Structure formats: C-alpha cells, structure tokens
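Dear Dr. H.,

I hope your travels went smoothly. While you were away I took the liberty of generating a structure for the chain from your last submission, since the lab meeting agenda had it listed for discussion. I wanted you to have the full record in hand beforehand rather than looking at slides cold. The sequence, exactly as received, is reproduced here:
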Amino acid sequence: MKKKVAEAFESPIQKLTRDVANLSKIDFQNLDRQELRKTLLDLMRSLGNSDLYRPTFERLFKVVDLDETTKNWLMDQFCQDSLPLVPPRSAPPASAQLMNSNLPQSDRSPPLMIDKQLEASLQSCEFEVWGFTNEQLIPLWEYFFQDLGLSAQFRIPPLALNAFLRAALAKYHEANPYHNVRHAFDVTQTIFAWLKTNTFNSFVPPLEKFALVVAALCHDLDHPGLSNQYMINTQSDLALTYNDRSVLENFHVYHTFLMLQNPDCNITANLSAVEAKCFRRTLISAVLATDMSYHFELVSRFTTQLETSSLSADDPKHRELVINILLHAADISNPVKSFRTAKKWADLVFEEFLNQGDLEKKHGLPVSPYMDRNNTDQVKLSINFLNYMVKPLFSSLAKFSRAAFEQLVVNMTNNQAEWEARGAQSQPLPEGEPQEPK
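The corresponding predicted structure, in token form, is as follows:
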C-alpha cells in the first residue's frame, strides 16, 4: 500500500524518469513487445503533460480511501489553479484593519547578552522563541547577520540594520496566533542553523545567503492571518492586485522592498547594481516559493534533480532550487521539531485556522477544510500534513544533506507516532474558543 501511495503522489516527470530507468533495464533478447509498447505509450503520455512537475490527486483518490474532508483539504490548499472561484456576492474584502494594524507594542528589555550557550541554541533546530520578548529578538537577528559575515562583507550600516529589523517587526501582527513575529523569527533561525552546516555554508554563496536570510525574516510581512484562498474567494484588494497568483507572497515581497526604499532602513545600500539585481531576484523567487499551492511542484523538481543528477553549486538554477526549497522547508518545519515544540506551533496554526473558519461563516462563504470549529479534527490534520507534505520534502532533503536533516527526520517519525497515538484516543473537539497552548 505504501508503494501505491508513493506512486500515486508522483508527478509526471518522476514517473517519466522511473519509466526511462526501467526501460534501460529491459532484456531486449527476451523482449515482450506488448510491455515495450505500453511503456512507450506511457512515456508519450507523460511527455504530453503540460504540468510535468505537478502530481494529480485523482490517482491518489483511487488508491487510498480518503474521507471527503481530507480530499477537499488537499484540493483546496495545494491545487489552487484547479479550483473554481467562489462568487463572493455578500462577502466584503478582507478588513482594512487586518491589512494595516497598529505597530506591535513590545516591552523594552535590557540588552541581551549572547553567550556560548545561547549561540549553540541558535545553531540548533530545537531553539524555542517563546522565552524572548519581541525587543530581545532584535539583537538575535543582528547576530545572524554578523555571524554569517553578511554585515561585514556587504557593509551593512548597523543603524540601518537595526531600523530595518524594527520596521519588519512592526509589520507583523501580534493579533495573529501563528503568522506573527515569532513565526518569522523561527523561520529565520531555522535557516541560520542550516546555513551553519558544511553543506549549505559551502553551497550558498554570500550574496545569496544575504537574500535568503532577509527573505526568511520578511516572508510573511503584514500577514493578515488568512489564507490565499480566502483572499481570492472574497475578491480582496490584494487578490485583485496580484491576479489571484501567490497573493500574500507577492504582498510580503512588496512590503520588503518598500522598506528597503527607506534610506534609514536600506541594508542593501552598499550593493553594486549587479549585486542588487541578484539580491532582488533571489529574494523574490524564495518568498514566492513559500506559496503552498506550489509545494508539490517544488518538491518534485528537487527530488527529480537529486535522482537524475547531482546538484551543483556552480549552476545558478540549482542554487535557486536549493534556496527556494530551504525557505519553504523552514516555513513548514514545525512538525519536524521535538514534539513539545511541534505541538505548540500546531495549536497556534490550528487556532488561526478556526478564526478564519469563523470569518467564512460570518460572510456566508464555504468553510475551508478543517477550519470549522464545530466539525474539525486537529489530529487528523496534523497526520495528513506530515504524511502528504512534510515527509516527502524532508526525506528528500535528508538525502541531500544527512547532517542537516537526519535528526529532523527522526523527530518527524516520532511525532507522527505521537499524533497517531493521540488520534487513537481522541475525543471530539469541544465547542468554543481553543485553549491557549501550554
């Protein structure tokens, strides 16, 4: 069954690669002409597919008896192009208050001393952000730029870096349970930890490291706590502006470069024209790759490249692919942290989902899968997300860099077992507000 599920999740290019490999093993002295004909016809069908890197879920639905909620979740969240738009009619655009919140109020804290213990923690994927105030995150972010040599190499003015970090922090909405400054820091810190490994320190050149760290920091700027599909279904101003394509991701990139246009915040002021162009191209590509509707295409490209040839740091396209998959992986890396950390993040993202479901009900929209607080299942959602999204991605990453991802794959397996154990004894979710994570 596992083999059938894996094959059902294959994109056309993966199937094509596998069939060509099988064809090369055929014993032509004992050739079965019918088998050869069938293989060649399959190859022709695969080559005729316009979306070589995108799997279709129809085969999965035939192989696995999935419930309607899970089917709808897969189609709704990860196949945006195939979804019809829901006429909004009575639904207004997203609230202006969501798009233009007040600056977050942070407690002023004494200067944070970064000792050896904290340094080691920041280079680990088990770092927990909740023990720090927003104000204390500023020197930690500055440390990333300094430790990676970015501040010195690109002559980043210290005052500009501090102003840029504060401006970015102010763009994150504290009211969001999940998409707030703590998530932004968590993603940046995860990227930092991976860049400190030998594999990625040598693979990603300094200028692209610079763009990747800034992309991680800014990848969810001004996030309203709602999904792209909500923006599209309500025909919000953002969906109209970006033509329903990676709506929020384009919005986050826009805010990033808007901040950089402010001379007080311009950390790229000392880049040459050529460097600035590369920086911008790398950052845009990386942030747009965090759009979950492109998850399967991105993973398929990466996996196919690993299986057919090696990834070369000398090839700009290969570096772009690695940078994009790193940021996307960091963005959804919570399920591969220790279960205590993973569960805390899962509670927060689930709370944000339920809040969106409440808004969808209020405006007469179909409630997105798993977002109806009166009919949902956090355990099932967590298991599905691990099985269909996280596991294929991190399994491929572990093949590319065992040192960086081996422990995370172990965590992933343990977490799946923990969620399955909880599912075996789970009770229906009570009505009312979800409890705060402990």
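Two observations you may find useful: The mean pLDDT is 85. DSSP finds 22 helices and no strands in the chain.

With kind regards,
E. W.
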